[in-house]
Design brief:
The complex is a heterodimer of chains A (90) and B (416). By secondary structure, chain A is mostly beta strands. Chain A is built from one helix and six strands. The chains are: A mainly beta (90), B alpha/beta (416). The structure holds flavin-adenine dinucleotide and zinc ion (ZN).
Chain lengths: 90, 416
C-alpha cells in the first residue's frame, strides 16, 4: 500500500490520515427493493484480487469522502477522486 | 514410522540415516472421493479427520504453494477459547480440548504450550466487559480468572501499570490458553493424513471448477483435471477467488495482517499478553524472540505484506504497554491474507451446489480453530450433516439475521 495518498483537495498526505470504509461499487438499494437486494448490499462483496474502488475518508484532513481506485494485489493506486465527482457512485 | 524418544535414540545411533520424508509427493490420481482446495491448517486437519475419524481415505489436498506457505505458517500461534457468544464458545472449547490431546493423537511434537493468555483491562468499563466474558466462559465450562492489578503485577512486573492515560487495572486470564508451534501443526496433520492414504499435492493451483448438471465433477488445476465426488473449499484468504469459480459471492473481504519477531532475548514474557488500550499482543518463542502483532492494516489486500504505518502503530502500542521494548530490535516482519467475514465469525457449511462445501471467514483467529474446524468440516463432508458444535457457522446466517458478532461492530470487516 502506498504510504502517501494524493487527496484531490489536500495533495499527497500520509495514509494514517485516512479511514477506509470499503467497497465503493455497491449501490444502496431503494428502501422497498426487497430482502435479497438489501442482504447483498449489506453483506456480499466482490472482493476482487486486482483493481478495486474503495471509499476513503480524509478524516485528519479535509474530511471529504474520496473514491480510491487501487490494486489489491500490487497495492498500486490508480486514481483518487472526490466521492461526489461525476461517475462515482455516492 | 512412529516417532518416539526411542526412535530418536535409535536413529541417532544409526547416524540419522533412517528418517524418511514425513509425507509422500504423489502424482494426482484421476479421481478422488473428496478433493480439498487449500493445504493450510484447516484443509490438512480436515483430510486428517476425514481419514482417521470418518473412514474417508480416498482424499486429495490440493495446495497451490507448499504446505505451510499460507496463514498456518504465518500466524502468531496463539490458542484460546475465551469467547463470549453461544455459537463461538463451545466450538473454540472443542478446539482447545483437541489441542490438549493433539500431539498424542497425531504423534507429532507441536509444542502445545498452555502458558496462559492475559487480556489486560484499563478502565472500569473494560473490567465489567471482561467480567461478563469470563462469566460466559465459566457458564460454558471454560476456565477464566479475573486478576486484579497486584496479581498481574506479580506475573508481569515490567508492564507500564501507571501509564497516565491507560493505567493497568487487571486482566482476564485463561490459563489453558497459550501457543502452539504453527508449522508443526501443518506438518503433523499432513503426515497423519498421508499415513492414512490421503494424497497431499503441493504446487497444484486450482484454476477452475467443472460442473455438470448442477454438480461439481472436478477441478482444473496446474497439474491437469482432477475429478471428485465432493469438493471442499478451505482456501482462507483466497476464499473469494475460489468461490468466484462457481459464481458464489461471499460475505467476505480479504485483508492483510502483519506479524513481527524480535531478536532472541532471555526468558522475559512467560504468557501471552494482549494490550487492552491499543492494538498489540505479545508472547515469547522458545528461541527467545518476542512474537507480536496488532490489528489488520484495514484495506482490502491479497498481498502478503503490509504498510509501514501499521508497523509504526504496533511498535508504539507495544512500547506503551512494555516500555522496555523500546530497546528491542525487530528481526523480521511479514503479512498474511485474512478472510475477514462480515460478522467476524467463520463459515462451515454446505453451499447452493449439492456436493460443494465451504470453510472460510476465519479472520485473524483461525489458527486456534484448526483442530475443531477440521473435525467439524470432516463431519459435514462425510455425513452431509453439520457437527453439533459447528452448527451456528451457517452461510445463511447473514440473510437470516443470526450474526455471531463478538465485537458488535456490524458488517464492517476492517473493524472486526
Ligand atoms: C500475521 C497473522 C497472525 C495470526 N495470528 C493468529 C493467532 O495468533 N491465533 C489464531 O488463532 N489465528 C491467527 N491468525 C489467523 C490464522 O492464521 C488463519 O485464520 C488460519 O491459518 C486460516 O486457515 P488455514 O491455516 O487453512 O489458512 P492457510 O494456511 O492460508 O491455507 C489456505 C491455503 O489455500 C491455498 N490456496 C488458496 N487458493 C488456492 C487455489 N486456487 N488452489 C490451491 N490452493 C489454494 C493457499 O496457498 C493456502 O496455503 C493469524 C494470521 C496472520 C496472517
Ligand atoms: Zn483531503
Amino acid at each position: 500500500m502506498a504510504s502517501l495518498i494524493a487527496c484531490p483537495h489536500c495533495g499527497p498526505r500520509p495514509k494514517e490520515e485516512f479511514t477506509v470504509k470499503g467497497d465503493a461499487a455497491i449501490v444502496r438499494p431503494a428502501p422497498d427493493a426487497g430482502e435479497d437486494a438489501w442482504y447483498a448490499y449489506v453483506y456480499l462483496r466482490d472482493n476482487p484480487r486486482g483493481r478495486h474502488k474503495e471509499y476513503w475518508h480524509h478524516t485528519s484532513g479535509c474530511r471529504r469522502w474520496l473514491v480510491v481506485e487501487r490494486d489489491t494485489m500490487t497495492h498500486i493506486v490508480y486514481a483518487i477522486t472526490d466521492a461526489s465527482a461525476p461517475g462515482e457512485t455516492a | 514410522m512412529r516417532y518416539s524418544a526411542f526412535s530418536v535414540f535409535l536413529n541417532a545411533l544409526r547416524g540419522n540415516k533412517g528418517w524418511r520424508p514425513a509425507w509422500r509427493s504423489p502424482v494426482p490420481k484421476n479421481h478422488y472421493d473428496v478433493v480439498i482446495i487449500g493445504g493450510g491448517g484447516h484443509g490438512l486437519a480436515t483430510a486428517y479427520y476425514l481419514a482417521k475419524e470418518f473412514g474417508v481415505t480416498n482424499v486429495a489436498v490440493l495446495e497451490k504453494g507448499y504446505i505451510g506457505s499460507g496463514n498456518v505458517g504465518r500466524n502468531t500461534t496463539i490458542i484460546r477459547s475465551n469467547y463470549l457468544l453461544q455459537g463461538n464458545n463451545p466450538f473454540y472449547e472443542l478446539s482447545m480440548k483437541l489441542w490438549e490431546g493433539l500431539e498424542q493423537d497425531f504423534n507429532f511434537n507441536a509444542m502445545v504450550s498452555q502458558r496462559g493468555v492475559l487480556n489486560l483491562y484499563h478502565s472500569d468499563a473494560q473490567r465489567d466487559a471482561y467480567t461478563r466474558r469470563g462469566n460466559a466462559m465459566r457458564l460454558h465450562g471454560v476456565d477464566a480468572d479475573l486478576l486484579d492489578r497486584n496479581a498481574v503485577r506479580q506475573m508481569l512486573p515490567f508492564l507500564d501499570f501507571d501509564n497516565a492515560r491507560f493505567p493497568i487495572q487487571g486482566a482476564l486470564m485463561q490459563k489453558r490458553g497459550g501457543t502452539v508451534r504453527h508449522d508443526a501443526v501443518a506438518w503433523g496433520y499432513a503426515r497423519g493424513a498421508d499415513m492414512r492414504g490421503v494424497d497431499i499435492i503441493q504446487n497444484c493451483e486450482v484454476t477452475g471448477i467443472r460442473r455438470e448438471n448442477g454438480r461439481v465433477v472436478g477441478v482444473e488445476t496446474s497439474q491437469g483435471f482432477i475429478g471428485c465426488g465432493k469438493l471442499a473449499l478451505a482456501a482462507a484468504g483466497n476464499s473469494t477467488t475460489v468461490a468466484d469459480m462457481v459464481d458464489m459471492k461471499l460475505p467476505i473481504e480479504s485483508h492483510v495482517l502483519q506479524a513481527f519477531v524480535s531478536e532472541g532475548l532471555k526468558p522475559f514474557i512467560d504468557n501471552v499478553v494482549t494490550f487492552g488500550a491499543g492494538h498489540f499482543y505479545v508472547s515469547q518463542s522458545d528461541k527467545g524472540g518476542l512474537v507480536f502483532g496488532g490489528d489488520i492494516d484495514g484495506y482490502n489486500s491479497y498481498a502478503q505484506r503490509g504498510n509501514l504505518a501499521t508497523v509504526e502503530h504496533v511498535a508504539e502500542a507495544g512500547v506503551a504497554m512494555i516500555p522496555a521494548l523500546s530497546r528491542v530490535r525487530v528481526l523480521r516482519s511479514w503479512g498474511g491474507v485474512m478472510d475477514m467475514s462480515m460478522d467476524g465469525s467463520p463459515i462451515i457449511d454446505r453451499t447452493h451446489i449439492d456436493n460443494l462445501y465451504l470453510n472460510a471467514g476465519w479472520c485473524y483467529g483461525g489458527f486456534k480453530a484448526t483442530p475443531a474446524s477440521g473435525f467439524c468440516y470432516a463431519h459435514l463432508i462425510a455425513r452431509n450433516e453439520p457437527h453439533e458444535t459447528g452448527r451456528a457457522f451457517r452461510l445463511d446466517r447473514f440473510a437470516r439475521g443470526r450474526m455471531i458478532d463478538e465485537k458488535g461492530v456490524g458488517s464492517q470487516p476492517n473493524l472486526h
